[in-house]
Structures are given as C-alpha cells and as structure tokens.
What we know:
CATH class of the largest domain: Mainly Beta
Mean pLDDT: 76
Distance between the termini: 13 Å
Helix content: 25-40%
Strand order of the largest sheet: 1-2-3-6-5-4-7-8
Radius of gyration: 29 Å
Largest sheet: 8 strands, antiparallel
Number of strands: 8
Structural class: alpha+beta
Shape: rod-shaped
Low-confidence stretches: 39-47, 151-159
Number of domains: 2
Amino acid sequence: MNPSSLKSRLALAAGLCLLPLSLALASPGAHGPNGEHLDGPAAVSVSSGLPRIEAHSEQFEIVGRLAASGLVLYVSRYETNEAVLGAQLDVELGNLKARAAFEAEPGSYRLSDKKLVDALQQAGSHSLVFTVTAGADSDLLDGTLAVAAHDDHDHAEGTGSGLRRGAAIAVGAGLLVVLAAVLLRRRRNAFGAAR
C-alpha cells in the first residue's frame, strides 16, 4: 500500500469522524457566547441579563434594571445626558407607590419597597410611572418593564444541547478509534503479504 494513499485515507477518515461533532456543535441554530439564539429575532442585549426599563421626557431620561435587591435607576438630563443627582424620584405601579432612595456612590436610585419590588418580579409587562423632581424642575415619565417567566425551558434546552454535544463527541471519537484500528490492521496485513 502506498504511504501517501494511507495518509490521505487517514485524513478522510478523521474528517468523517469529526463531522458528527461539527454538526452537533452547530445545531439546532447558531448560538452566541451566552447561549442566546442568533437565528431568532433581534433582542436588546444586556450584559447582566436582568430586566431593563427606559423612559424619557423632554427634560429627563431614566434607565434602570430589576435586580433581586430592588429596581436600580439612573436619571439624567435628556438633552445633555448629565446625571441628575440627589433628586426626588417616586415610582408608581398601579395603586402601589414608593420613593427610590438616592445612592451617592454609584449615582443611582434604588427602589427597595418590598411590595412594589415583589410585584415587579412577577412575570409580565409592568407599566411604571416615574415622578422626577430636581430643584425647580419636575416631570412625569412612563415606561414598561418586561419580566420573563421563570421556567426551566432554557435550562432543559441547555442540558439537551450538552447531551447532544457529548454524544457527538463520543461517537466521533469511537469512529476515529475504530477507523484507525482497521487501517492499522490493513497496513499490517499489506506489509505481511509483501514479505
């Protein structure tokens, strides 16, 4: 048997063995580094993955995120993007109303009222009304906080994807070992017959 023929057969066999692995890693759709589906509709990407809210008026802009400890909000001037520090910020959800406390160090406002935060943590769209009073300026802003349902779909999908990937790796490695053994046996038989 020609040595270059053996090398090309080994390369072809290795490629065929790795094919199931590449298919398992690429299916059932493209995924980003955090497991998000890249072939679905575009979504706002947030590094923390927490529910976000944005609201603005002619005077103010509010950006916030819902965490386990409460709703963290940042207030700025809409035209200049200058941070509004030490203002009075009231938050309303239906008949619930509470004041967000100003935190000087991060320059944010934290809503930690238990009833209001518990209501915001429920799945669904929450329409919020913000009242900002900064010196002589005062304004109402409204925004919607969308909170996804907490289910096991993403976890189960990730587990199934991991199982498929592991099975593909095992099958590919097994095929590679079997193919290498067959080729080595043929090579030994070919050299044995040539003697």
